[in-house]
Amino acid sequence: MTTTPASLESLDLDPAFALHRGGKLEVRSTIPVRDADDLSLAYTPGVARVCTAIADTPSLVNDYTWVSNVVAVISDGTAVLGLGDIGPAAAMPVMEGKALLFKEFGNVDSVPICLDCTEVDALVETIVRLAPSFGGINLEDISAPRCFEVEDRLRELLDIPVFHDDQHGTAIVALAALTNAARLTGRSLGDLRVVVAGAGASGVAVTRILLEAGIGDIAVSDSKGMIYDGRDGLNPVKQALARDTNKAGHTSSTEEALKGADVFLGLSGSTVSESAIASMAPDSIVFALSNPTPEVHPEVAAKHARVVATGRSDFPNQINNVLAFPGVFRGALDVRATTITENMKVAAATALAGVVGDDVRADYVIPSPFDKRVAPAVTAAVADQARADGVARR
Prior knowledge:
By secondary structure, the chain is an alpha/beta fold. It has helices at about 5-10, 15-20, 35-40, 45-55, 60-65, 85-105, 120-130, 145-155, 165-185, 200-210, 235-245, 255, 275-280, 300, 325-335, 340-355, 375-390, and strands at about 70-75, 110-115, 135-140, 160-165, 195, 215-220, 225, 265, 285-290, 305-310.
């Protein structure tokens, strides 16, 4: 699209464009530069003494620069929202938005970075070279299955937290909400049989955290049907899922597997019929999380399910990643964690579920992103667990 002053004025009539004009972020100084003395301390010659000290003792970078409190929000633009592969330039508004949420909800400074490369080796090499400037790496909107390898390799190579939010943010919030939904219906996680529709980044991560938390049984489907041991054409990630899930041996469709299931978790962009939801067990739980169109309309699901959650803000029980990632990184940065462990993710989910407490009800199994208790609870739980897991440096 060729833009002219007139066309820009037309775009600005849309409040979303008007809000984004000029970007959503700026850099501010934390110290005044009022005179020559201030300048000589903030820059040359005073800064040279700090540089020399860091050169002699590299860990001092965490005390005398912003590194220990800043996260890189990095994307290659290949899986942006529900828009797909739209490229790095078009991904920047989302990365700016993520940085805004980091600051607003966790008081974490972050820098949005969109990379013009998509090959795994190139992404890993580029991010490793950028890493000395940051205390953590938040990967964002990188398509599956590449995102799994990128994250795994970066976690091996770096001694700072690496967190793909599309995977783990969704997983933490979903676990928290499911914990409360199970409690509301008088069950534990170990009592539940779950069907997950979707084996992309979020589907795999949700499945993994539920396994870690002791789910009773869980089966996963993709666009070709249920994932099971021995199914042809599975990539390594799905082969691992096949080995670790689907104890009941479902080999047909998602809807067939839903018969008698306790929980449906939709992370696929597909649709599920009302009759399939109706075939689930009594007091069923439906998390239809695809955006903007859930796998089943929440009002339809509510006819048959005890608890319904979506990814949308216009229905109760929004599974929103902003409930997790600001507190997760704040906690990890506060103790200068070398990584984010599975235990730290589960601890974050437990803390998030605990915010709801005894107020749990069918339309309130997860708190609002604007609940001021959320970030401090998650931060404290993550920091404590990092110390318990031996990955904290202070």
